[in-house]
Amino acid sequence: MTRRFLFVLGSARADGNTELLARRAAEQLPPEVEQQWIDLTADPLPDFEDLRHDSDHVRPTEGPVAHVLDATVAATDVVIASPLYWYSVSAHTKRYLDHWSGWLRTPGLDFKATMAGRTLWGVTALAHEEQEVADPLIGTLNNSAAYMGMRFGGVLLGNGSKPGDVLRDTEALARAKTFFAQDAPLARFPYEAG
Ligand SMILES: Cc1cc2nc3c(=O)[nH]c(=O)nc-3n(C[C@H](O)[C@H](O)[C@H](O)COP(=O)(O)O)c2cc1C
């Protein structure tokens, strides 16, 4: 299967550090790897409504939810590019992930089986110098991947507060060069780790 990367941008501003860092990492992907970029601020999703147990719940066929759903199931690799907001993912990103819960129960979609074995990655900018404050975000993505039976490639972290700051984080830019080339093992919950 040809690799197809979906970049899901979750910053509440355009051209921020997270996107800059994600684009640096994406530049290293081979040309035959397809890339699709979706900006959740430019094309906002509606609030997630929990219809999982309603029998008339159907797959959306138009609008932003259908667009991002189609892009998600077409991707071999989903890159969550969210800034660190209150030590976790942004609200835009969280809403996208909440929609996954609806898709898990959408008749005819088989979302979990479809995504199993595919790879989840993260890219995050944060203002804090000490990167361990991003552990809750990393845990969210790792555990989500584990629940879905997906691989997890880890989270590329970069430091910055105002847009463009991350371009001065030379260590992050160096990590970006090889980030998507690294191994992405099947995700495991922390209690499963050997
Ligand atoms: C709502 C909000 C919450 C934030 N929470 C944190 C945080 O918990 N830890 C941190 O280090 N930086 C925090 N920041 C700073 C951003 O992570 C930082 O400005 C980052 O560069 C934003 O990424 P962006 O340029 O891609 O939008 C927060 C910023 C905002 C707007």
UniProtKB/TrEMBL annotation:
Start and end residues of each NADPH-dependent FMN reductase-like domain: 5-110
Entry keyword NADP: no
Keywords (A to Z) from UniProt: Flavoprotein, FMN
Key word Flavoprotein present: yes
Pfam families: FMN_red (PF03358)
Gene Ontology terms for molecular function: oxidoreductase activity
InterPro entries linked: Flavoprotein-like_sf (IPR029039), FMN_Rdtase-like_dom (IPR005025), ISF_SsuE-like (IPR051796)
Gene3D superfamilies listed in its UniProt record: 3.40.50.360
Protein name: Flavodoxin
